[in-house]
Specification:
Mean pLDDT: 93
CATH architecture: Orthogonal Bundle
Order of helices and strands: HHHHHHHHHHHHHHHH
Distance between the termini: 34 Å
Oligomer: single chain
Strand content: under 5%
Number of domains: 1
Number of helices: 16
């Protein structure tokens, strides 16, 4: 067996041994830290622990959502890619990912990798400045769940044709060099997008736009499957996955209020309303064009609504969330139809749904954000007669799109040099379940 086959195991073994020598004794909190720790609220902490669990459940939900839409010979491999992200990113986050996203700012672009290296100072640290009522460790692990699902979202674009070990390498690079910088830009108090006033309540920019543009980059780089097109293998899996995603999204959005209060309730309400509206809009729009209302369409529409409301969940009113869900659903529906007639082989339409859905939500947040919902909003949206926020979002959308797309292209090329991304034609025709994992899905 070649050395490359052992390489991932050797790396993990070295990391495990290294962790034995890096473990540190918790420091005694300073008087200032003790004051901050004394402000921790048990109700907020309980809700955020629950919200973190909700968000983690979204990744198995995504596994069912994607797994049901691929061909039967690729169900296991597609679902495993989501499960693998849970494992890989969890370890990477503790080692360096959290530092890159939330460590001491280096010019507003990325965190210092040594700030929380190997979770140094996280378990015994004072609460995060923007989440003052929950333990720092709860905040860190809540943010981990976002870092997990983002690369998992990309897998729908290159489903049925990527080598598993190469996928693992790519998501490590993506998490450190695309996701973490974006999280720092938008969510760190010293991040440059944060300082510009860009609003991203729960990840429309950081999560969905980054995943969507990375998906498009992977589609262009990996090119089409040998047998382009298939029928979904298990639509009940898609329905189950949608339910888990919808459920988990309450933790995703309402949890981003980092407390159990009115803002969390608002985000909960806008999330549910936008998703419901988008599901209805998708199937009614299909029916208006002479198609039968389908379970698959309703599920995709619901997820698009969840994506679109994510950046504005804690900044817009419930009535405006109806409009956001409706508009985003129509835009994504049209683009999915266009994509199906093009040469782009985005297997599960990640870019039209997550990328475009995230951009739609970002722009609509710039239109409908209001101080009446969230006092942290410095500039109201275009709907309220102010233009600054809207144009700031437009500029930020272009910048983030370019960074995520071209950065992902470079990482795909680097990964391909180290470990070929595409499986062989024979392996693809055989199906990734057997060729990559030696398992099969029995119907």
């Amino acid at each position: 067996m070649k050395f490359k086959s052992y390489a991932p195991f050797i790396v993990l073994t070295a990391l495990a041994i290294f962790s034995l020598f890096f473990s540190s004794i918790p420091k005694t909190p300073s008087p200032e830290d003790l004051i901050k720790i004394g402000a921790i609220n048990t109700g907020d902490t309980a809700w955020m622990l629950t919200a973190a669990a909700f968000v983690l459940l979204m990744t198995p939900g995504l596994a069912f959502f994607y797994g049901g839409m691929v061909s039967s010979k690729n169900i296991i491999s597609t679902m495993l890619q989501s499960v693998a992200a849970m494992a890989v990113i969890s370890v990477l986050w503790v080692v360096v990912g959290f530092s890159l996203a939330f460590g001491d700012s280096m010019g507003g672009f990325i965190g210092n990798p040594s700030t929380f290296f190997m979770f140094k100072g996280v378990l015994d640290g004072a609460p995060w400045s923007l989440a003052p009522t929950i333990p720092f460790a709860v905040f860190a692990f809540f943010q981990l769940k976002f870092a997990i699902i983002t690369p998992a979202l990309i897998t729908g674009a290159f489903a049925e044709r990527i080598r598993f070990t190469s996928y693992l390498l790519f998501i490590c690079l993506f998490s450190m060099l695309i996701y973490s910088p974006l999280a720092h830009w938008a969510w760190h108090p010293d991040g440059f997008l944060f300082k510009l006033g860009v609003l991203d309540f729960a990840g429309g920019t950081v999560v969905h736009m980054s995943a969507g543009w990375a998906a498009l980059a992977s589609v262009l780089y990996l090119k089409s499957r040998k047998s382009n097109g298939h029928s979904p293998a298990n639509i009940p899996y898609v329905v189950l996955g949608t339910g888990l995603l919808w459920f988990g999204w309450f933790g995703f959005n309402a949890g981003s209020a980092v407390g159990a209060g009115n803002l969390a309730a608002t985000a909960f309400a806008t999330t549910n309303t936008a998703s419901a509206t988008a599901a209805l809009a998708w199937i009614f729009f299909d029916a208006a064009r002479g198609k039968k209302p389908s379970a698959l369409g309703a599920c995709i529409g619901a997820v698009v609504g969840l994506v679109a409301i994510t950046p504005g969940a804690g900044f817009v009113t419930v009535p405006h969330s109806i409009f956001i869900g409706f508009i985003a659903s129509l835009i994504s529906n049209v683009l999915v139809e266009w994509r199906s007639k093009s040469s782009l082989d985005d297997t599960l339409d990640v870019f039209p749904c997550h990328g475009v859905g995230g951009m739609s939500g970002m722009i609509l947040t710039g239109i409908f954000a209001t101080t009446s919902i969230n006092g942290a909003v410095a500039d109201q949206g275009l709907f309220f007669g102010e233009t600054k926020l809207f144009f700031t979002h437009l500029v930020a959308m272009i910048g983030v799109s370019a960074f995520a797309f071209f950065g992902s292209l470079l990482l795909l090329k680097l990964t391909d040099i180290i470990s070929p991304l595409r499986v062989s034609e024979q392996e693809e025709l055989e199906g990734l379940d057997l060729s990559q994992h030696g398992e099969s899905y029995a119907r």
